[in-house]
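Just curious: can you write a single protein's sequence together with how it folds?
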Amino acid sequence: MSLRTALASLPDDRATAHAVYEVLACLATHSDEPMTTTRVSRATCLDADRVIPVFEALAAAHVVDCDGDPGRGPCVLHPDTVLSLEINRYLRSGSPTANRMQSNLGKYRSRLGRG
């Protein structure tokens, strides 16, 4: 069970990264609750075409437990401690606020000659 394995199997583009961020945020909010791709796509305002590949990658890496086909059946996120840390770290790194803070910190350090 590894989030890194699931992320490695997905394409590396902005649209997919956005879909992964939104799906993980939704699943983390509703952990231990069965979620279908339809429900997640409604909650995140993403097309089902964007949500289904993310669900399939998460199911293949055993991040979520699915009843049947990940594209149709409900999937449940049962995070253990390590998986919860991985998800929280990913969500913090993809947060627009965190990215803005990191770039401001980088600018500050470069002005002082420390980075």
Summary: Residues 67 and 92 are 29 Å apart (CA to CA). DSSP finds six helices and two strands in the chain. The mean pLDDT is 84. The two ends are 36 Å apart (CA to CA).
